[in-house]
Amino acid sequence: MKKVYLMVYLNYIMKIVSSISNLKEVMDILSSVTNEAKLEFEPDGLRVRAIDSARIAMVDLFVPKEAFELYDVQEKSEVSVELEKIKNVIRLPSGSDNINMTITGNKIKFVLGSLTKTISTLDTFVNSPKLPTVDPKNSVVLKKAELERVLRAANDVRDSIRFSLTDKRFEASSQSDSEEVDLVLEAENLVELKVQESASSSYPLDYLTKIIRSVNFSENLKLAFNNDYPLVIEFTIVGTDATKTARFLLAPRIE
Prior knowledge:
Proliferating Cell Nuclear Antigen, 4 helices, 2 domains, 19 strands, 255 residues, 46% strand, 9-stranded antiparallel sheet
């Protein structure tokens, strides 16, 4: 299989070479929350902070410069984009090992072998939301596969799922008048469990499902929450040269 790269030039000041898998990870994570985002290329790496239109879910993503094949950024540059348009370019077949991308004014030009595609950036910058002060006292690290399993089981039960933590176990449950699903993982079956006080909180199932589905490259997830408190989902993507970090914040569903 050929190794495919994305090459980026911003006003000929910034030059980046990235594998397609690296770019796909970024687009998948961001798209779970929004379809428009401001990409902030800083000298030490790419940072993106985005929030959905209903202000229920937020993502804070950092890709260090070491995660790129080449990352030549002398000063901070920002570009606001429609993520689906970039994802459409990634999906295009290519007769070349490289994808070349140049940004001039409000146009982004992609060159894939003999094929060229140009898209427009957004007319106005997307604002990066401020990261709220959220500091849960309780956390659990579990296998992503376990969480995916209970989310699938709860999909047709109701539109929310309740997480509970004690110093002995993690529980995820959802119930309606006719159905009920319950996942219980004892401490010995968890990667990590830190509990200062027992806690329980409900979260919207549709948002959770989209977020977890976007995390294709991490085996474990960290969930942190208090009673009826925003959920913090953290994970890392360990690559050959560097580790990308991502943090989701999800508002609780008060029942």
